[in-house]
Amino acid sequence: MTTAVERPTLKAKERPGDRIFSTSTIVSGSLILAILAAVAVFLLVQSLPAFVADPEKFKGDATNFWQYVGPLAFGTLWSAFLALLMAVPIAIGIALFISHYAPRKLAQGLGYLIDLLAAVPSVVFGLWGIGVLAPLVQPFYTNLVEWFGWFPLFAGPVSGTGRTTLTVAIVLAVMVLPIITALSREIFLQTPVLYEEASLALGATRWEMITMAVLPFGRAGIISASMLGLGRALGETMAVAMVLSPSRDVIFQLLTSQNPTTIAANIALNFPEANGVGVNILLATGLILFVITLVVNMIARVIINRRKAFSGAN
Amino acid sequence: MSKRIEVNDLNVYYSKFLAVEEVSLVIEPRTVTALIGPSGCGKSTFLRTLNRMHEVIPGAYVTGEVLIDGNNLYGPGVDPVLVRRQVGMVFQRPNPFPTMSIGDNVLAGVKLNNRRMAKSDADALIEKSLMGANLWKEVKDRLDKPGSSLSGGQQQRLCIARAIAVEPDVILMDEPCSALDPISTLAIEDLIEEMKADYTIVIVTHNMQQASRVSDRTGFFNIAGTGKPGRLIEYDDTTTIFSNPGVQATEDYVSGRFG
Ligand SMILES: Nc1ncnc2c1ncn2[C@@H]1O[C@H](COP(=O)(O)OP(=O)(O)OP(=O)(O)O)[C@@H](O)[C@H]1O
Ligand SMILES: [Mg+2]
To answer: What's the whole-model pTM score?
Structure first.
């Protein structure tokens, strides 16, 4: 026998400050969603013709849109993945050096330098890739193919110019390095002293302290920082367009003169001459890039949330 | 395992600031020593010199010596990492690693010494250490949950378990009960009483009853004024300090007539 008791609804008095704050957060939050939605709708609408375009409208030997975009998507993911593979460990190393090893003065100087690097425009990196890096690494590539050609990724024939997928990946790695480093450094500096001291008091060396306290705490932050770097690498246009002569094939080899180009570079190279449904096709590849970025970020979220209870955020 | 501590003419600095001046005392093995005194008089600072945690703070250093069984901790060539494995520490705020499970927290220090432990040895050690910290019954079914999922008092006992798992010679505790309720406090005091059989224990506390309940000897620290260094005013048997202290300032402090 339960009698329904009417629950009095407690309502706190609304203060103007709270009101302004909550309104402004709601407005900016919805603004982001609205902009994202507008971009998605624009891409989607503009892309529709591409999915039903005539076979002869596609460049190269693709006969439908998926055949056309597949190799480009592969090239995008492959070069960005290689870039992250190189950049993340180095970035973490530099960030740890700045946050936990370097003397304070040196750390500050290095910090500024890294922040400056993050502001260098990508055209400059592209020029550096063609002008400096490619000729510099070409002899090294020749040796690599000679000695390790049996390893599929390093199979020949070697490119004579050095302008290969690996070169692009190195350029991209250098480009994303500063942002990952800068964010990781901030995260490592936020490690609670309480836990650093807990590990030191157990007799941890500095490196052991880093593996016990600093890195586990920074895990989610490192993943987020890498995702920002990955975002930049996936969308990078100029550096890739400048270094690679485009080809649209799925090629894993890193050192040959046949190298898959990326979605962004492909758009940049072909947009000036595109007309009619050609424009729609390029926009549709942009939609695919948008989706790839979203999916990659969602995967990162899932990874971060999987060990939420152990994140130290509670 | 328990060892004797001898401190000679110890001065403790934060860069140019002399925080603690001219401390000399002897702590016998298998005893509990309480350090009391007003806030800011350098109890924590002094305690942290006993396992070389003081120098973790940038610019911090000491002069003088701390001998453990005759070996100077501050002698040339002494590795602070090895010192800290010998002299364990429990902090004021419970700090189990939230990124590790309860079981891994207990093993955190042990794994530093010896990475590859048989699973059975590890389990046995977890059980033994948690028993030693009076926590086993409460957590035995959730050893794989994060360390942060425990209550404050349980977390502090987990930290004690973590400290005793490495079997140190000395255990330092800096106000281990200040964040705890009276019942958890009593649990930890009982634990200190039991641990005395195996370890030399030094505890900082603001709680006079606690000092008189758990300790054999008591040291009273004081400062002459802000910016002045802290000094060890009196160091004697706990009963003497609380019933018949030799210095007026000590009597004022323990009877609550201070500042
Ligand atoms: N990291 C630090 N850098 C500089 N000075 C410090 C630092 N930590 C403590 N001090 C100073 O050293 C003196 C002693 O501080 P300490 O923390 O040892 O006091 P305490 O006796 O433990 O006080 P409480 O009972 O409040 O914990 C104080 O004057 C304090 O301001
Ligand atoms: Mg203190």
So the answer is: 0.84
